[in-house]
Amino acid sequence: MADLANRLEIEDLQENLKVVQELLQRHELSVDAPSVHDPSPATGDDGRSKDMAELRAKIERLHPADIAFVLESLPLPERLVVWDLVKADRDGEILLEVSDAVRESLIASMDSQELVAAAETLEADELADLAPDLPEDVIQDVIRSLPLEEREQLRAAMSYADGTVGALMDFDMVTVREDVTLEAVTRYLRRLDELPGHTDQLFVVDRDQNLKGALPLERLIVSDLEFEVDRVMVPELITFNPEDKADDAAQAFERYDLVSAPVVDAAGKLVARLTVDVVVDYIRDSSAEQVLAEAGLSEEEDIFATVWASFKNRWAWLAVNLITAFIASRVIGAFEGSIEKLVALAALMPIVAGIGGNSGNQTTTMIVRALALGQLQPPYWRKLLKKELGVAMLNGLVWGGILGALAWYLYDSKALGAVMTLAMTLNLVLAAFMGVAIPYVRQKVGKDPAIGSSVLITACTDSGGFFIFLGLATLFLL
Amino acid sequence: MADLANRLEIEDLQENLKVVQELLQRHELSVDAPSVHDPSPATGDDGRSKDMAELRAKIERLHPADIAFVLESLPLPERLVVWDLVKADRDGEILLEVSDAVRESLIASMDSQELVAAAETLEADELADLAPDLPEDVIQDVIRSLPLEEREQLRAAMSYADGTVGALMDFDMVTVREDVTLEAVTRYLRRLDELPGHTDQLFVVDRDQNLKGALPLERLIVSDLEFEVDRVMVPELITFNPEDKADDAAQAFERYDLVSAPVVDAAGKLVARLTVDVVVDYIRDSSAEQVLAEAGLSEEEDIFATVWASFKNRWAWLAVNLITAFIASRVIGAFEGSIEKLVALAALMPIVAGIGGNSGNQTTTMIVRALALGQLQPPYWRKLLKKELGVAMLNGLVWGGILGALAWYLYDSKALGAVMTLAMTLNLVLAAFMGVAIPYVRQKVGKDPAIGSSVLITACTDSGGFFIFLGLATLFLL
Fold first, then answer.
1. Distance between CA atoms of A276 and A225, rounded to whole angstroms?
2. Regarding beta strands A201-205 and A175-176, do their DSSP bridges make them parallel or antiparallel, or are they unpaired?
3. What pTM does this model have?
4. A347, B336: Cβ pair inside 8 Å?
5. ipTM of the assembly?
6. pLDDT per residue over B351-407, tens digit each?
7. Most A CBs within 10 Å: which of B98, B168, B222, B420, as the mutation test of the A interface?
8. Which of the four, A368, A379, B98, B360, has the lowest number of CB atoms within 10 Å?
């Protein structure tokens, strides 16, 4: 029957978005009046409702992740028009897919009843993800409507902090006993109709849910059906605890190429499973968070956010930078007498400070990455510091030498050139030392060495660079 | 038989590393004499060779990815001692796992014969990954030793550039015809003994290898064995071309929660497949590269690299920064007369420049991310620019106001405070404009908007900030 397999091209994403935009424009929707989320068809003249029907049909054919993409790519008024057209029974899964900022904007447009209806379409682990964004009364309503088992699962999933395996796990695992035949297992699976997504293996447990091993689907297929499970199962398994760090789990998935893995409690009882799709999302999200945090964005920003929302998302970082810049400014202020006498210092000092900051950040970035991978062992810090100081000296010689020569040429002062070279070298050494020391100390006191290291380094190399350069100049030139 | 499933804890990684380090230390290996890669046992007194045997046994029990981790975490001399102990037939897979910088150090310690032997243990797609790091004569030797089919596959895999699906795909797919029964499929699979890793589905093809659909293993298990393949197969599939961008493929894997996907040529013929484990590695690598590139490290650095190797890896970025800092310095130089008259300007000007750089980078980071996700459509650039200018005005009012008041208080000059506020606001507006314009232009001319945007912004806001502040001061204060 089937012709050539229907290719779902990846460029379709952009295509989908364009079609939606065109239909929205043709419909000449009033862009300034966000409407309430309500799945009833738009009223209006015939042309309009025809476009609307076409848009609705288009949306219905899309995968939830693709609708999420379209919603994230539209400004708020258009976003809410499209959101209105989404069938109520898909609201839940789409809310799970969109980014935090966009989710807030969608939830704000829905009333309690709609939210409860959306939440009720989700499974316990998905609900746990959505819960922090929902109003308290909606959560209570949903919890009351859940069967006992799911209520327990929801409570379990919600009790684990972000960044743990517990926050990522799901409860869709298929379990079998070790003393049954593969024939019986196959019969059992046929009755299930469909296996949960990412079921590459069944988990083998005893009567008390203690994990005994795993039965990969491919072994089930290629083995003799008369065999019992314990003869073909894999007894050695990578398992996780709900309290394990999600980062470590992600590394294990990457390292051992896992598709799914069991999650067991301290007593070895199977409680949940972790699947690669969730791990991939986690890896993406946490690397995006790192990039955003380094630029000082507290959370992922809806590109169509209001000016005020953007200001709130960015102010903390700017305030910190203002404080460190102010301190550096006071350092310069202490040398105003010297600058008055030799104004060339004012022009040259930002070079000394800037190069130190860049070099220090290179050191820290490399170390933070090695720490994140667990590859920097206590015996090697000293070795590393020695190497970084060596690189700093070499950089000082090269770049300090070039800049010193330039300063000499520009201001016709050999002494100024020498001070420039010396100051750059010393600031690069300071940068190397702080570049190693800051992540070392942060790690020692149990803080994430990635966060804020860059501000700290730059603060040291700015104030330090100004102090070293202006101090040396005051000593030797005036 | 099986007790509680053998938990392979993730903390074991650190444990492994510690054990290896202890054994190395006990063996009192001469740390300064890197030995040639040679799997013959170390000679020496009995205690030594006992430790060595223990170390060898320890290493033999480790997963290749874990050996790679240990190798990456050891300084070069110790690294080469451990590398010596690795059995020759595992060299290939371990070389695939280690980071580029460490791979170079290992390959440098091996002779051609060892390299050929290592390469011959790999499959065509793996070989293609390793090939760029191997000497030409080794590659030629290996190619000659390959059977014709694999030689073709290797040629195919090597012909695709980094960052394409072709560079990530493998050839381990199991194919079936659509007109056979599931019974026959099962019989066929049993003869295979073992399925390739990450086989969650079989690909259905016709006589000419045209892709018709996919048969998920779980459907094979739960369906009636008398059915023919075309009755249970999935005809709609996400497929990729070898030329597709790896980034897009990674997004599709994430979006649609894929485990494997077929790769077809332009005519619809199945040529290879893409699996989630490779996609996860790709996502990790490319996000790491981004973080490293932003700090100006050209490639991932071996933390135990020599001073010289580190210098080479970092110099380009420092040189660029030196040039932009020098230009900013010349801008200041043009206003030396003003600074001489009002030395407070020297102390205040770095604040104006610094805040502009930080704010501009926030804007660009957000836009680069939206571009990477394909969420920023042409009609919305103008809207975005308007919003960013609004945020800049607000930031200017708030932070410029605070700093203006501080300057007024410190230098007892209302006019200086007013110039400070105005300069900060203007530089923030410049930062917002450049923060939008730079990724826009880079995207328009087909360059990656992520790379180098941060240097460009900082260059504009530094020179621009100095110019605006000193220029306004010269106009209004002197």
1. 29
2. parallel
3. 0.86
4. yes
5. 0.85
6. 999 999 999 999 999 998 888 888 888 888 999 999 999 999 999 999 999 999 999
7. B222
8. A379
